[in-house]
Specification:
The structure holds two protein chains of two kinds. In chain A, strand 6, helix 7 and strand 7 form a beta-alpha-beta unit. By secondary structure, chain A is α/β, with parallel strands linked by helices. The chains are: A alpha/beta, B mainly alpha. The interface between A and B is large, with 49 and 39 residues.
C-alpha cells in the first residue's frame, strides 16, 4: 500500500510540474505467450512536451507504443489517450504514428501516400508543407520502392504528421538516417513541440533522447528503471569506470563504499563508481597485487549501458 | 492549466458523409493504382486468361462447337470465370497477407482510416480488374473469333461475371487472413488452379472425367461459369437461382472465416 501511495504522490507531483497528461500507461503488464513484455509500467506523456522512452532493442518500447495506439490490449492495467481508450476513433483523428514497418506498398508515389493518409484526418496540413517538413520536396513523384532507406523513413514520418495531430508517436524515427537527416528530423520535432504538440519518442540513442526530450524514461526488460529530465538521468549515471586485475572477489568489491557496480570482464573487473578517488584508495589498500589499472569517464552511452546493465545484475542477484 | 484544458477538451470531431465518401474513393483509387503498377499482378491476372483464350479458343478450336455453341463464345464464359477468380483472389489475398504480416496494416489501423474502407477498396479493385479481363476477352472474341452477341447479352455477361467477383474476393480475404506474407501467392495458386480445372473452366464440363464432374457440382467456380454460360445460351441449363444461392452461401462462409481472422489479429503482435 505504501508503494501505491508513493506512486500516486509522484504522479500528482509530476502533474503539477508538467500539466495535463495526454497519454499514459497505468500499471500496465503485458506478455507475448510466455514472454513478459512489460511489467507494471507507469508512464505518461505531458501536453506540449517530448517524452522519450529510452532502452535497448527488445526492452518493450514498441510494445508500449502499440498499447497507446490501441493496436494491442494490456493483460492488466490500462492505456489512456486524451483521457479515454486509445481505440476511440476520436482519439485516432488527433494522433499520428510512425511505426517500424517491414513493407510499404512500393508502387505508390510519395505524394500519393501522403494524399491518402491526409484524407483520413479532419484538418490535414497542405501537401507542400508536409513534403517540406519531411525533406521530401524533390522526391514527391518518386515511387516508394525506389526510395533509399532514409528516404523511406522520412516518408513514414510525413505520414505521421500529415494530419496535423496533437499527439505524435515516433517509434525509432531516426534508425537508418544519416547524421544530416537525423538533425533535420530533430529540428522538425522541435518545431512541432513549439506549436504545442505532444511527442512520444522511442529510441536507443541516449544522445537523441538528450537532444530532444523534456523527460526520459529508461526502459529495460519491460520495466521502467529510471525516469526524469535528461539532466537527472545523466546525473544518475555519471561517474567513472575503474578497470583492474585484482584478487578481490566481486562480492567484496561491492562492499567498498561508493562502488555502484562491479563486474567480471575477462581477467579483470570493471567497477562503476561516482567517487573514483576514495574507491581507488580502498582498492589499493586492500589488494597490493592490483595491476592493469585503467580509469575512464563514463560517457553518455556508457552511462546508459550502466543503467540497463545494473538492472540486469540486480535482478540476477535477487534470483 | 489553460493548455491542459485545451488538450483534454474532447471536442467531438464528426466526419461528414462526404468526407467519409472521399476516404473510400481515395482508398479505392490508390489500391487500383498500386495494383495496376504491380506487374506481377497485371501480368498474371490479365495475361493468363487472355493467353489461354487465344490459344484454345482462337488458334486451336475456333471452328469447333460445344453443344451447338461456337467454342470462341463458350470459352469467353469459362475463361471469363477463370479471369474473375484470379483477379479477385490475387487482388485481395496477397495484398492483405503482406500488409498484415509486414506491419503496413498496423500503420493504417493506427490512423483514423475507417477500417472498412481498406477492405472495400480491395473488393472494388477486384471487380474493376474482373471487368477489364472480361471486356478484353469479348474484344478478342469479336475481333478474331467471330463472336456475335447482342449488346444486352454482352452487358448481362459482364454484369454476371463482375458480380461473381464478390464470392472470390470474400474467399481471398479469408485466405489473406490465414496465409503468411510470402506464402500467400503459393497458397492462392494451390487453390485457384485445381479449382479452375475441376470446375470445367479449362476443359469444358462435359469432357471432364466422371468423378471430377461430381466434384464440380460442389465448387463455386462451376456455378459462376454455368451462370455465365447460361447468359450466352450454353451450359447445362440448370436454374440460375440455385447457382446464385450456392455463391451467396459460399460468400457468407468466407466472410465468416475472414472475420475470425480479423478478430484473431486484433490485439496480436505481428511484424
Amino acid at each position: 500500500m505504501a508503494m501505491i501511495a508513493t506512486l500516486e504522490e509522484t504522479q500528482s507531483r509530476l502533474r503539477a510540474r508538467y500539466g495535463a497528461v495526454v497519454a499514459s500507461l497505468e500499471g500496465v503488464s503485458t506478455s507475448y505467450g510466455e514472454v513478459r513484455a512489460l511489467r507494471n509500467v507507469n508512464f505518461a506523456a505531458y501536453a506540449g512536451q517530448v517524452v522519450a522512452l529510452l532502452g535497448p532493442n527488445g526492452a518493450g518500447k514498441t510494445t508500449a507504443v502499440k498499447l497507446l495506439l490501441g493496436l494491442m490490449q494490456p493483460d492488466s492495467g490500462k492505456a489512456r489517450v486524451f483521457g479515454s481508450d486509445p481505440i476511440n476513433p476520436q482519439n485516432r483523428m488527433r494522433t499520428g504514428a510512425m511505426l517500424q514497418v517491414g513493407r510499404v506498398p512500393e508502387t505508390l508515389r510519395v505524394r500519393e501516400h501522403i494524399d491518402l493518409f491526409s484524407s483520413y484526418y479532419p484538418k490535414p496540413l497542405p501537401l507542400d508543407e508536409v513534403l517540406a517538413a519531411a525533406g521530401l520536396e524533390k522526391l514527391r513523384d518518386r515511387k516508394f520502392g525506389d526510395l533509399s532507406g532514409g528516404q523511406r523513413q522520412r516518408t513514414l514520418f510525413a505520414l505521421s504528421i500529415c494530419g496535423d495531430p496533437d499527439l505524435l508517436f515516433l517509434d525509432e524515427p531516426t534508425v537508418g538516417l544519416d547524421v544530416e537527416a537525423r538533425r533535420a528530423l530533430w529540428e522538425e520535432i522541435r518545431r512541432l513541440v513549439e506549436r504545442g504538440k505532444t511527442v512520444l519518442l522511442t529510441t536507443h540513442y541516449l544522445e537523441e533522447a538528450d537532444a530532444l526530450a523534456d523527460r526520459i524514461a529508461v526502459i529495460n526488460q519491460g520495466e521502467i528503471i529510471a525516469e526524469g529530465t535528461p539532466v537527472e538521468i545523466k546525473a544518475q549515471t555519471s561517474g567513472k569506470l575503474i578497470r583492474c586485475v585484482t584478487s578481490l572477489s566481486v562480492e567484496s568489491l561491492l562492499q567498498i563504499p561508493g562502488v555502484n557496480s562491479a563486474q567480471q570482464d575477462r581477467e579483470a573487473v570493471v567497477i562503476r563508481t561516482g567517487e573514483a578517488e576514495s574507491v581507488l584508495r580502498a582498492l589499493l589498500a586492500r589488494d597490493s597485487t592490483l595491476a592493469g589499472l585503467e580509469i575512464t569517464g563514463a560517457g553518455l552511452e556508457e552511462a546508459f549501458l550502466a543503467l540497463t546493465q545494473d538492472n540486469g545484475q540486480n535482478k540476477n542477484r535477487q534470483n | 492549466m489553460s493548455t491542459a484544458a485545451a488538450v483534454l477538451s474532447n471536442t467531438q470531431i464528426e466526419r461528414s458523409t462526404s468526407h467519409t465518401a472521399t476516404i473510400y474513393l481515395k482508398e479505392a483509387k490508390y489500391q487500383f493504382l498500386k495494383n495496376l503498377r504491380l506487374r506481377v499482378y497485371t501480368a498474371s491476372v490479365i495475361s493468363f486468361p487472355l493467353m489461354f483464350y487465344v490459344l484454345f479458343g482462337l488458334v486451336l478450336n475456333a471452328k469447333e462447337t460445344i453443344g451447338g455453341m461456337g467454342v470462341p463464345t463458350y470459352l469467353i464464359a469459362t475463361y471469363g470465370t477463370f479471369g474473375v477468380m484470379g483477379a479477385s483472389l490475387f487482388g485481395t489475398a496477397s495484398g492483405l497477407a503482406a500488409d498484415r504480416g509486414l506491419g503496413w496494416l498496423q500503420v493504417k489501423r493506427a490512423s483514423p482510416m475507417p477500417p472498412f474502407a481498406y477492405f472495400t477498396a480491395k473488393v472494388v479493385l477486384s471487380m474493376i480488374f474482373s471487368a477489364i479481363v472480361v471486356l478484353l476477352l469479348l474484344v478478342l472474341g469479336i475481333a478474331f473469333g467471330g463472336v456475335r452477341l447482342p449488346l444486352m447479352e454482352m452487358a448481362k455477361l459482364l454484369g454476371t461475371l463482375v458480380a461473381g467477383s464478390l464470392p472470390f474476393s470474400a474467399m481471398g480475404l479469408a485466405i489473406g487472413y490465414f496465409a503468411g506474407p510470402n506464402s500467400a501467392p503459393a497458397a492462392i495458386n494451390l487453390i485457384y488452379l485445381p479449382l479452375s480445372f475441376c470446375s470445367g473452366l479449362w476443359v469444358p464440363y462435359m469432357f471432364l472425367p466422371k468423378a471430377v464432374r461430381q466434384i464440380a457440382l460442389a465448387l463455386p467456380p462451376y456455378h459462376l461459369s454455368q451462370l455465365a454460360l447460361g447468359v450466352v445460351g450454353a451450359g447445362r441449363h440448370e436454374p440460375a437461382t440455385a447457382h446464385w444461392e450456392v455463391l451467396l452461401a459460399f460468400t457468407l462462409i468466407c466472410l465468416g472465416v475472414a472475420r475470425i481472422g480479423f478478430q484473431r489479429d486484433k490485439g496480436k503482435l505481428y511484424g
